[in-house]
Write a structure and sequence with these properties.
This protein is α+β, with helices and mostly antiparallel strands. It folds into 2 domains: 42 residues; 306 residues, Catalase core domain (Catalase HpII,  Chain A, domain 1). The longest helix is centred in the N-terminal third of the chain and has 34 residues. It is globular.
């Protein structure tokens, strides 16, 4: 039996190599399919990120969206109230260190703060058990579209005309007319002027998620962070400074920390979890889970948030994604953007930033 076994080994070696080769080819085929090389007409993450670059121009070393930003650090002080709906350690009473990033939408790192009506706030909660919760929020409670395909179409419609350097109004109008689901977002932006500061805006998860409690029961939720500082709209004079938001935050932090309450909203059974264009009714149960405290800020070129990919699907035990199709698309797009900018940094060095 021993001699037979030794004799069979060489004969099986080609089989093993063939099997390994087949696995490598299959894996390569998977990547090729995901990249769209085998199906060029299919929408892929790469096409979405490429369209961001086409709309905003080349800015090596920067995020493809939310390129202009500012790093912040602080902590989350949980009061324990949300522990009844999620077993995530972040909701147990006590402090959790956080790294964050404020930003404005768009791929131009030199854009004026007043050029867009939306602010963004991303957070990474560093749990004591080593797990992380990452979230990327906007200052609007709804998103403009509900599917990745609609998002890509919106980007294409918004691509600047080479002659004017601005989007073609007719193309945008046609897109909005063909996609009535965008109306809640448009109406919200029209009736809610942009905040005068980063610290007096409310930020929303927009997408739904699922919390899992200690008993294994799931709860559909969205969350928001609501500021202690009263909201005020932008003063027209402030718009003259292209970096007024980051400067104001720096001045505030010299006088002390800035704070928000983390509010968890629980859905009813009839509330949609797969459509980010729709708000849930205002009478849904709300849980004040604790206080987010920002203590210091730093430039994004060398700050704590520089190397963080704020992928909203990086979640600890006790939180998981919902069936919202935008979540997987966001995660994939963030990964491609991260890969490109970090490769550019490795080749050419980190980009400079003019922000304080």
């Amino acid at each position: 039996m021993k001699s037979r076994s030794r004799a069979s080994a060489p004969r099986c070696m080609p089989c093993r190599l063939a099997a390994i080769g087949a696995a490598v080819v299959a894996l390569a085929g998977t990547f090729a399919y995901a990249a769209g090389w085998l199906t060029p007409s299919r929408l892929t993450t790469y096409r979405i990120v490429d369209q961001f670059q086409a709309n905003n121009g080349p800015h090596p070393g920067y995020r493809r969206n939310h390129a202009k930003g500012l790093c912040v650090e602080g902590y989350f002080n949980s009061n324990g109230n949300a522990a009844s709906v999620s077993r995530a350690q972040v909701f147990a009473p006590g402090r959790t260190a956080i790294i964050g990033r404020f930003a404005i939408p768009g791929g131009n790192p030199s854009a004026a703060d007043a050029s867009v009506p939306v602010r963004s706030f991303a957070l990474l909660f560093k749990q004591r058990d080593g797990e992380q919760w990452r979230t990327a929020m906007n200052s609007t409670p709804v998103f403009a579209v509900r599917t990745p395909e609609q998002f890509y179409q919106q980007l294409v419609a918004a691509q600047p005309d080479p002659q004017t350097g601005k989007p073609d109004p007719a193309k945008l109008k046609a897109f909005y007319a063909a996609n009535p689901a965008t109306r809640p977002f448009q109406e919200w932006v029209k009736t809610h002027p942009a905040s005068s500061r980063l610290a007096n805006a409310t930020y929303y998860s927009i997408n739904a998620f699922r919390f899992i409690d200690a008993g294994g029961h799931e709860h559909a939720v969205r969350w928001s962070v609501e500021p202690d500082m009263p909201y005020a709209p932008v003063d027209p004079q402030e718009k003259n400074d292209p970096d007024f938001l980051s400067k104001q935050l720096g001045e505030q932090l010299q006088r002390g920390s800035v704070r928000w309450h983390l509010i968890v909203t629980l859905a009813n059974a009839s509330d949609p979890t797969n459509d980010a264009t729709l708000q849930w009714p205002a009478d849904r149960q709300r849980i004040d889970a604790g206080t987010i405290v920002i203590e210091r800020t730093s430039g994004q070129a060398d700050g704590a948030c520089r190397d963080v990919n704020f992928d909203p699907t990086v979640l600890p035990d006790g939180i998981k994604p919902s069936d919202d199709p935008l979540l997987a698309a966001r995660s994939a797009a963030y990964a491609v953007s991260y890969q490109r900018r970090t490769r550019e940094e490795a080749l050419h060095g980190a980009p400079a930033t003019r922000q304080p």
